[in-house]
Amino acid sequence: MIDAPPLFAYRAYGMPVLSTFPLNGLVPADPRSCVDPVSIQLGDVPAGLDRPLIEDSVRQITNAAYLRHFPGLLRLYVEDGRRVILNPVPDCPRTALEAIALGAGLGVAGFQRGYLPLHASVVEVNGTGVAFTGPSGAGKSTTAAHLGQRGFANVADDLCMVRLEAEEARVGRGVSHLRLWDDAVAVLGWKDAPRSPLPEGEGAKAVYAVATPPQVADFTLRRLYLLRAADESSPPGLARLEAGAALAALLESLRLPPIALTTGQAAAHFRRLVALCNTIDVYTFTRPWDLGQLPRWLDRLTAHLQEG
């Protein structure tokens, strides 16, 4: 008789999770509380999906399944919001395995369950959640780290899972670490802080533990800021987005390609997106390109966060 592998239980982004390997950065949970969990495991995945609705060079998507290839690292399969299977290459770094399980894996599983996965970091402001989104390199984690130094606890980094409940947008606590570039670390003064390097392909990023995670596991999402770098036509500053512009910002912020909204319960996905747009305030925060000037502008952002 072969013993079953031990299971590690967590509450991640508002979802119960049972994994066959430990996931650093998540808060452990009582396995007995994990009702209808997302199961994360290592194993074989399909070579392809039958009649995919969406297909490109690295992924295939159907109404109930998602298959993605991360070249040189692993293949990921997510099914029906309940199973996340990773098939790594023999020398796949553990940091990559965890990052993909916690990012793409749980992001897709949540989407299949009816959550909206945003490519965003979240901090706690006066007992509510505020999200910072934008493309890779926009400064989501850097902004969250600076705000952490100003007393705003980090709720989640890189992934924000939003669910709509009783006319409220809710977000759950995610990973308790930040992935930062070396230049951002220098501005933060974290040069000698303990770090875990990420695998090749992530540039000069490394993982840094968060000193003060939030004490509460679930928050009302109040605002979202779309981060951009300033240029000649867009000087640093804050601006509120209305109606169509806010909806476009949310579409830009999705952790999946927007076309994925046409799979599964497509009408429900779009209703959730519009409901989220009508529930939270959406702003742009155009930051200076020079990170040395960022603290001054974050003082303005901090004052803005305290308003309302």
Distance separating the two termini = 61 Å
Number of domains: 2
Contiguous low-pLDDT stretches (5 residues minimum) are none
Strand content: 25-35%
The largest β sheet comes out as: 9 strands, mixed
Tally of contiguous helical segments: 6
Q: C-alpha Rg, in Å? A: 19 Å
Percent helix, as a range, is 10-25%
Number of strands: 20
CATH architecture type of the largest domain:
3-Layer(aba) Sandwich
CATH topology of the largest domain: Rossmann fold
**CATH homologous superfamily placement of the largest domain:** P-loop containing nucleotide triphosphate hydrolases
Given the C-alpha coordinates, what overall shape results?
globular
* Mean pLDDT reading: 88
**The top level CATH class name of the largest domain:** Alpha Beta
| Helix-strand pattern | EEEEEEEEHEEEHEEEEHEEEEHHEH
- Which structural category fits the helices and strands? alpha+beta
Q: What does the secondary structure layout of this molecule look like, with pairings?
A:
Layout: E1 8-12, E2 15-19, E3 38-42, E4 54-55, E5 59-61, E6 65-70, E7 74-79, E8 83-88, H1 94-113, E9 116-118, E10 120-125, E11 128-133, H2 140-149, E12 154-156, E13 160-165, E14 168-172, E15 177-180, H3 182-188, E16 196-197, E17 206-209, E18 218-229, E19 237-241, H4 243-253, H5 266-279, E20 281-287, H6 294-306
Parallel strand pairs: 2-3, 3-8, 11-18, 18-20
Antiparallel strand pairs: 1-2, 4-5, 5-6, 6-7, 7-8, 9-13, 10-11, 10-12, 13-14, 14-18, 15-17, 16-17, 19-20
Helix pairs in contact: 4-5
